[in-house]
Amino acid sequence: MKTHVLLLLSLFLTSVYFNGCDDTISGELAENQPPSTNLTVERINRGSDFRLSSQIQISWFGNDPDGFVAGFEYAINDTSESNFTFTTKTDSIFILPITPGQQTDDVLFKVRAVDDKGLADPVGASLVYPIVNSTPQVSINTNQSPPDTLFSVSSFGWNFSDPDGILNLASTEIAINDTINGWTEIPFTEDDDGQLFISLEVDNTTSGTTDAQVFLGRSYSTLQANGENLTIPVNVGARNTFYVRAVDAAGSASEIDSLSWYIKEQTSNTLFLNDFSGPSSSDKQQFHLDLLQQNGISPDIWIINDGEVSQDKVALSSAFPTVIDPTLIKTLSKWDHVYWISNDLDRNITYAQEILDEFFDNGGTSFVNIPMKNLDREDPVFNFLPVDSIQTGQFLILEDSLVTPTNVSISNTLRVESGSFALSGVFPIKGVNGSTSLYQANFVRRTATGGVRPYNDYQFVTIENAEGNLIYFSLDLSNLDGNNNISNMIQEVVIDRLGFKQ
């Protein structure tokens, strides 16, 4: 059969050739036919109580009788010619607009296919979507919120979302103390992933209402409005309340989340950090405050002695803001001097290198009085304290022993108080290269039988770092006033050498 078909075809072609047929094609070129368009879903049957979310995935397809479909054009509500948008996709997720102020709406979606010659379907496919607006949501992030009391910098983080999609949100807004006239928009982008973080920085040297500048993100970027730095009024020396909400494109606002905190007035250039835990904390604090006040300094006080040292370091004090960078770092940089006391090097001094970074960059100076303990030299505290070596073993400093200056600029010799018994749990220390030793003590070794024997190696107890902006005193000063001259030592070491002032 196959052979017969081929033979007939060959005879036909030969006949055409030898009969000299005209090879010109005649007739009229057929006119381009428009494509047709269909929506995947052609009808929506829902009652008024079962409307769709405004975030909807819509899909479509097209056919062309004499070519191919090159793409599609779609429009939402306004189907005038200039309002169509071209796409090569056959589906997409849309946030259908709800008329501002309305909770429900009926939104027209129209799509039309376009063929390879640019001809669009004159009819297209359309469908009205009955939609309902969903209320956005917002919540303050407790891990990025201020403690009960803060000084100059307060930071706030919050999460925001919308069941209709993040693109349906128009704004996030905050207010301080006033939700009637005080809402301020904080801009966001899709890249924020539903989270925002801001800081309010205020000049808190005077109590009363004053403007706080707003900074965005961990990068502490200045926010502006109308070409000027964005500010919000807050109350210094009083409690404040922070409010936050989200508003969607239909004007629907989330429930408001809020928290309150106290902004403390800064009254001095010197900050006193009390990290002395236990029942004697207030007595130790008063001892040191008296020394400073005798030298004309009444510092601001920040008590950070919560938390307990167990087998590891104490957690950073909850009196500090939970966000170290930028909140705590920026706050501490507002003082010129920091006077830090504690009874354990495993407490908050562990974090000093990080949290005082900007403070020292700004020219700050610090005095630290914390007894030395037998720590590994890899301990992070030694990234901050200028200590190179700790003499190991059991040492004593006997009562009435002298603690003598090792630097010619210091004249006051201290004495271990009588009746205080020997100071135990003490360690000779040696400073890092470039540092300066300021005091040494008369250490003796404890023997296995409970006696003592001489010790003749280094005996330093006070070290100034190479930069001259940090002095570490490794003995509890409250035990060294046998000569009634600790106040004079503070004058020489803290006031004259470190430049502390009110």
Give the gist of this structure.
This protein has 502 residues and is mainly beta.
Keyword list:
elongated; 9-stranded mixed sheet; Rossmann fold; Immunoglobulin-like; 6-stranded antiparallel sheet; 502 residues; disordered N terminus; mainly beta
Can you put this structure into words, describing what you see?
Strands 23-22-24-25-36-35-32-28-29 form a 9-stranded mixed beta sheet, covered by helices on one side. Strands 9, 11, 14, 15, 16 and 19 form a 6-stranded antiparallel beta sheet that branches. The longest helix is centred in the N-terminal third of the chain and has 17 residues, at 2-18. It is built from 6 helices and 36 strands. Helix content is 12%, strand content 36%. The chain has 3 domains: 36-132, Immunoglobulins (Immunoglobulin-like, Sandwich), CATH 2.60.40.10; 137-263, Immunoglobulin-like, CATH 2.60.40; 270-497, 3-Layer(aba) Sandwich (Rossmann fold), CATH 3.40.50. With 502 residues, the chain is mostly beta strands.
Overall pLDDT score: 91
Q: Treating each run of at least 4 consecutive H or I residues as one helix, how many helices? A: 6
- Give the oligomer, counting copies of the same chain as homo and different chains as hetero: single chain
Helix content: 10-25%
**Computed CA radius of gyration, to the nearest angstrom:** 39 Å
Taking pLDDT < 50 over at least 5 consecutive residues as the criterion, the unreliable ranges are 1-21
Query: For this structure, what is the CATH homologous superfamily of the largest domain?
Result: Class I glutamine amidotransferase (GATase) domain
Main sheet: strands, sense, barrel: 9 strands, mixed
The class by helix and strand makeup works out as mainly beta
CATH topology of the largest domain: Rossmann fold
Tell me, briefly, the overall form: elongated
CATH class category name of the largest domain: Alpha Beta
| Beta-strand residue percentage | 35-45%
Q: Give the CA-CA distance, first to last residue.
A: 115 Å
CATH architecture descriptor text of the largest domain: 3-Layer(aba) Sandwich
As laid out across the biggest beta sheet, the strand order is 23-22-24-25-36-35-32-28-29
Number of strands: 36
Tally of discrete structural domains: 3
